[in-house]
Here is the input.
Amino acid sequence: MTDQTEVSPPTPSGWAEPTPKVRLSHVPEGAMNLNVEGRQLSGPLQGFGPMWQKTYTVSLPEGTASPEEVVSAWKENFKDFWLPGDHFYAPLAGLNPGEVALINSRESVPGGLMKLSTGVMVVYSDETSFTLMTTQGHPFSGWVTFSAFEDEAGTKVQAQVLMRANDPMWEFGMRFLGGHKTEDRIWQHTLSSVAAHFGVQSDVATEILCVDKKLQWGRARNIWHNAGIRSGLYLTVYPFVRFRAAVRSSRRA
Here is the structure.
């Protein structure tokens, strides 16, 4: 059994076929599966806050690894390059077009106030790049493209985010609770980890550009799907549900 959505096979171009809703056929052991099943994908046009393009790059000296070698290792070890304390549950079938990954995180929540359960889909993949797109309710609506390419100094490794905060609550967190700094820290750590995998210690260059300053008030209703609120409610209620189930079970015995 593989962890995948109910979509058609990927096209020869490397793109996943469009899907109206995300479907999971397998949940990894230990993963909290909320806010993914049955949700739609959410790109930067569907978000609430200003649109940001954030680019994180690190350089590998010439002869260290080819772009293809970098991306192959990145896909294979993606969860190991993730920020410590958080969990990225990669699909069993790998980071291939149409596959879905679950994320259980505190670092993605501004201020680390709660544990968040959300997910992403691989919408594109080839030998030198792959792109993950967020599901409804994620802290941001958008996608992240991971790539490697040759330059004069060797191989450039890059993560580029195009995103808007998903709803007014996430926008407040981004602006006033350190959400943007947290986002930067996640991808700076990832890029540093990729470089370290190839034995390179190097600073991560960060470039941030506000593409559109406007708030999309018509998307304020996205808060209904807010994965932070729903994860928090679930974690609050779940112990009582388990306790009641245990009491009923003991009475039957």
Q: What stands out?
A: Confidence is low (pLDDT under 50) at residues 1-10. The CA atoms of residues 128 and 163 lie 22 Å apart. The helical segments are 67-76, 168-176, 179-197, 227-252. Residues 227-252 form the longest helix (26 residues).
